[in-house]
Amino acid sequence: MSQPIVGLRELKKEISRNSIADATLELALERGLERVTINDIARVAFVSLRTVSNYFSGKEEAIAAAGRNLSDTIVEDLSRRPADEPALESIHRVTIAFIHSLTPEQLNAQRQKRRLGDRYPAINAYLTARFELVEELTRPVVAARTGTDLDTDIYPWLVAASAVAAVRVAVMRWAASDADCDELTRMLDSAFAHLQDGLETLHAPPLETTPATPRPPRPKRHSPR
Predict the structure, then answer these.
(1) Is the dihedral of CA 20, 26, 29, 31 positive or negative?
(2) Checking phi first, is residue 81 left (phi over 0); if not, alpha (psi -120 to 50) or beta?
(3) What is the location of CATH 1.10.10 in the chain?
């Protein structure tokens, strides 16, 4: 009988945490972060002031946690991929599936909290921490799939770091635009394609040069006799 109770308790915690995060993002978008108080957040999220403080160190951390995050599902989703699939490809496919699982509201939250990070740089530290968490969770999965050792092999560290960097860059570029989900998918596909190609060096096309106009010959100067 104890297991369902523990499960229910964890579910209630998750609901409270998500409610606080979403309320903070909503209020910050409406008023600006500097005009949002902990009292406001607690009122909109239907929780106590103490509950807000228990879950988040501040408004910036709550905003970074708003909406669904890849770190919530990455381990479970990777475990479902074919065992013989290359690690980078598995992370790529899991990321695309996660993006397409988001509702329009959840997808918009991803964009809005990154735009808030441009206005309030303190938010960016927590957004970066979310990506670092994905990287941390991904490393042991890559090691297990490739038979490498986290303590002695650099491979799982490098794969996880490269993959998460590709996701971060694609999401940041997408968030700065007004593009739709299909464009985000295209950006992710492009980012992972470059990684899988080994970041082959790209060469800029040669610059077109205009032939210099020949100067007319200088008139000869005659010395006075």
Answers:
(1) negative
(2) beta
(3) 7-65
End-to-end CA distance of the chain: 123
User: What is the pLDDT confidence band of residue 6, given thresholds at 50, 70 and 90?
Assistant: low
User: Residue 70: which of 45, 100, 104, 25 has the closest Cα?
Assistant: 100
Q: Which residues have a Cβ under 8 Å from the Cβ of 40 and sit 6 or more positions away?
A: 27
Phi then psi dihedrals of residue 188, to 5 deg: -65, -45
Tell me the three-class secondary structure of 70-83, residue by residue: HHHCHHHHHHCCCC
CATH 1.10.10 fits 7-65, yes or no: yes
Which tokens go with 77? 């989703």
CB distance 51 to 21 below 8 Å = no
Q: What is the pLDDT of residues 149-200, one digit of tens each?
A: 999 999 999 999 999 999 999 999 999 998 999 999 999 999 999 999 887 6
Task: Give the pLDDT confidence of 115-145 residue by residue, as tens digits.
Answer: 999 999 999 999 999 999 999 999 999 999 9
The whole-angstrom distance between residue 189's C-alpha and the CA centroid of its chain comes to: 14
- The tokens for 84 are 């013989």
Q: Specify the fold of 67-197.
A: Tetracycline Repressor; domain 2 (1.10.357)
C-alpha triplet 91, 97, 99: angle, nearest 5°: 105
